[in-house]
Write a structure and sequence with these properties.
The chain has 125 residues and is mainly beta. The chain contains one helix and nine strands; from the N terminus they run βββββββββα. β3 and β4 form a beta hairpin. The protein is globular. Bound molecules: FE2/S2 (inorganic) cluster (FES). FE2/S2 (inorganic) cluster binds at residues 49, 51-52, 54, 73, 75-76, 78, 90-91.
């Protein structure tokens, strides 16, 4: 089975520090991811904290800290850098969010999900 390509949104509709969620089949069930724009670039991550493997947005699609400088897990407050996914504060400090390949194609934000993405993510730990 080839990798899946997910068209998340129009690139022109994604404002700086705006997030857009999407769902994907990771091979062992449906998972969530999100894209976020920062300084003209777009990043994509799984919506899964590195402390406990649960989603990070208690409020739907709210991923940013109060000062909007970091991605924040709502459960215990871990802070991740937007551009690298590195956790700089909180229980999983030093670990990275699981990044997903993302590109702008024909004006659209497209995320590529590898076949058996759950297995791949586990191998990267
Ligand atoms: S589950 Fe995210 S910081 Fe604990």
């Amino acid at each position: 089975m080839p990798a899946a390509r997910i068209v998340v949104c129009k690139a022109s509709s994604l404002r700086d520090k705006q997030t857009v969620k999407f769902a994907f089949d990771a091979g062992a069930g449906v998972r969530e991811g999100f894209v976020i724009a920062l300084a003209g670039r777009v990043y994509a991550y799984r919506n899964q904290c590195r402390h406990i493997p649960m989603t990070m947005d208690w409020v739907e699609n709210r991923f940013l800290s109060r000062d909007r400088c970091h991605i924040q897990c709502a459960t215990h407050g871990a802070l991740y850098e937007i551009d690298s996914g590195l956790c700089v504060s909180g229980p999983p400090a030093g670990q990275h969010l699981r990044a997903l390949p993302v590109a702008i194609e024909d004006g659209k934000v497209v995320v590529t999900i590898a076949r058996d993405a759950d297995a791949s993510a586990g191998a990267a730990d």
